[in-house]
Amino acid sequence: YIFFLDYFFFFFKQKTAYEIKECDWSSDVCSSDLALLTIIFLYFLGQQHFNKEVGLWAALFLAVSPLNIYDSHLVTADVPVVLFIVLTTHFCLNYYQKGDLLSAIIAGVCLGLGIATKYLPGMMLVTIFLAHFFRKDKKPENLYWGVVSVFGAFFLVTPYALIDWLAFFTGLAKVFGIMQRGKEGLNYVVENPFYYLYPLVTT
């Protein structure tokens, strides 16, 4: 998502996505559209797998979430990654209920794209396995193609992970190290409660 915007603004505006200011309509439209799609898909997820009221409440909570509104005005990976998480959850539930190959593959593709957007959805790989193992009529080939779809989608949009795998895994280890040990400046975020009020005030 970020790389796509980088190319777009390089060719048409001669600047990168990281240099876009909030006054640029193009960045607002891209992020806001993805946020709106997430709200819509979240409603259908709740409606299909639970009931209409659950779908409405879930969509409402996300729609008025201060952090979601704030991120929708910025070019960050947080907005599209939430969309991929919602889609992955939806198709994992479909796979659990129907056990069909198509749902497993689509869930895998959505998860792979989500991991390529931000590594956090990688934990949802467990969800595909749980959806499979809790079914009575298990078809191992469905789980196999679901997992293959995850890696296929990831490497399709992140070829750098294969082209320069050593640099990729070095950077990945560095990211995980920061997550485990912390980084200078993060203590302020954790210890200062006003940090979390900022999106609420600005929206």
Structure description:
By secondary structure, the chain is mostly helical. The chain is 76% helix and 0% strand. It is built from twelve helices and no strands. The protein has helices at residues 2-12, 25-49, 52-63, 66-71, 78-98, 101-117, 125-133, 140-157, 160-163, 165-181, 186-191, 194-202. α5 packs antiparallel against α6 (101-117), α5 packs parallel to α7 and α7 runs antiparallel to α8. The longest helix is centred in the first third of the chain and has 25 residues, at 25-49. The chain is flat.
State the helicity in percent bands. Answer: over 70%
Distance from N terminus to C terminus (CA atoms, Å) equals 24 Å
- From the alpha-carbon coordinates, what is the Rg to the nearest angstrom? 19 Å
Number of strands: 0
What about the largest sheet? none
Oligomer: single chain
List the uncertain runs. Answer: 1-23
Series of secondary-structure elements, N-terminal to C-terminal: HHHHHHHHHHHH
Mean pLDDT across residues: 79
C-alpha geometry:
flat
Sum up the structure in keywords.
flat; 12 helices; mainly alpha; disordered N terminus; 203 residues
Summarize the structure.
With 203 residues, the chain is mainly alpha-helical. The protein is 76% helix and 0% strand.
Protein topology:
Elements: H1 2-12, H2 25-49, H3 52-63, H4 66-71, H5 78-98, H6 101-117, H7 125-133, H8 140-157, H9 160-163, H10 165-181, H11 186-191, H12 194-202
